[in-house]
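Q: Please design a sequence for this.
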């Protein structure tokens, strides 16, 4: 069979268009659920191309809705597509699509935030972490309110090699609000550099693929949308527990416009704050006057490594929460003005 003949074998038979399905099943987008549909199959094809070659691949699509992206994934030759959709109104349309692609589309009515993806595919597709990624992809155009908590959860799963990453270095192609896509991929020194940049980039190669203008969606969202591709790294750039990294990074970025030692200080209780901050900056060999946005991943690695050593010597540091101390001071009327300002952030 010629190459084009092989590709044709994957293509779906003639079906009602996604727009017709929406009308047929009266699938009005629910504003409450931030549903914005992509009906232009050239665009959904373009998103799917960012995932790489899907011929014979296993794919999990999150939030298929009326199924535009789903059709593109099937047309790209995925052999086994599992879709997880929360809104029951979309299930009949997805089942129709499943009948048109026998044995290739499994429809799950569920919530991706709680769905056990580690049970969704056969263990036989797994690849050792330090080898090439498995032939498994996650693709999705989710509401922004879901995609951000979800990527944070999946980054933790990457660090622990659990959930979808129990199969190996599963690749992700996901949409985000444009600003979030920019933060995820922001390099050192850029205005968008943030906590999310560090957390994503110490664990993955992250690529901001392209921007979809809001007007391409039905109904049109307030913002534009960025498509981001993630490939988990074999060796995370910071080799410490995810929660510990998150703690240091969160504290440092609390004062994103100030010198970075300001945020570092807040890792330590008042009685040892100055001494341990100085020690941490010196041992990590990081200039305390750098802004958080100017810190590279190696800077962060050095800081987290020294913080981990300090915590190993003094485990009580791990339970110290500056915000909690502040709240107590505030409640007892002992908080000074700058502290009150901090609490309002
Ligand atoms: N993928 C479709 C498209 O591109 O046209 C729909 C996109 S719409 C922005 C998001 C979809 O995700 C909706 O179908 C919505 O019901 C679904 N969804 C929202 N939250 C979800 C969750 N927690 N788990 C699974 N699906 C969810």
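A: Design:
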């Amino acid at each position: 069979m010629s190459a084009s003949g092989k590709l044709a074998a994957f293509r779906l038979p003639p079906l009602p268009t996604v727009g017709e399905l929406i009308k047929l099943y009266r699938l009005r987008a629910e504003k409450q659920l931030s549903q914005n549909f992509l009906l232009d199959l050239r665009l959904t094809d373009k998103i799917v191309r960012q995932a790489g070659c899907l011929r014979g691949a296993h794919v999990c699509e999150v939030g298929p809705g009326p199924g535009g992206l789903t059709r593109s994934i099937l047309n790209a030759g995925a052999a086994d597509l599992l879709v997880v959709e929360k809104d029951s109104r979309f299930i009949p349309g997805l089942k129709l699509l499943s009948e048109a692609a026998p044995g290739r589309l499994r429809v799950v009515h569920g919530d991706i935030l709680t769905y056990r993806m580690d049970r969704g595919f056969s263990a036989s597709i797994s690849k050792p972490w330090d080898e090439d990624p498995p032939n498994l992809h996650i693709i999705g155009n989710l509401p922004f309110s879901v995609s951000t908590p979800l990527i944070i959860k999946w980054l933790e799963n990457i660090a622990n090699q659990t959930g979808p990453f129990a199969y190996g270095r599963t690749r992700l192609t996901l949409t985000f609000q444009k600003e979030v896509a920019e933060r995820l991929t922001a390099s050192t020194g850029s205005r968008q550099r943030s906590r999310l940049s560090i957390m994503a980039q110490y664990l993955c190669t992250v690529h901001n693929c392209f921007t979809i203008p809001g007007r391409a969606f039905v109904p049109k969202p307030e913002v534009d949308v960025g498509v981001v591709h993630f490939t988990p790294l074999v060796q995370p750039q910071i080799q410490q527990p995810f929660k510990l990294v998150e703690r240091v990074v969160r504290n440092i970025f609390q004062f994103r416009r100030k010198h970075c030692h300001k945020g570092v200080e807040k890792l330590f209780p008042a009685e040892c704050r100055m001494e341990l901050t100085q020690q941490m900056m010196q041992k990590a060999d990081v200039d305390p006057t750098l802004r958080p946005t100017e810190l590279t991943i190696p800077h962060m690695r050095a800081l987290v490594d020294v913080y981990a050593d300090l915590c190993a010597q003094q485990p009580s540091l791990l339970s110290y929460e500056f915000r909690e101390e502040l709240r107590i001071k505030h409640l007892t009327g002992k908080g000074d003005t700058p502290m009150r300002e901090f609490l309002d952030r």
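Q: Thanks. Anything notable?
A: The beta strands are 37-38, 58-62, 80-85, 105-109, 136-140, 171-177, 204-212, 217-218, 225-232. Residues 1-5, 339-345 have pLDDT under 50 and may be disordered.
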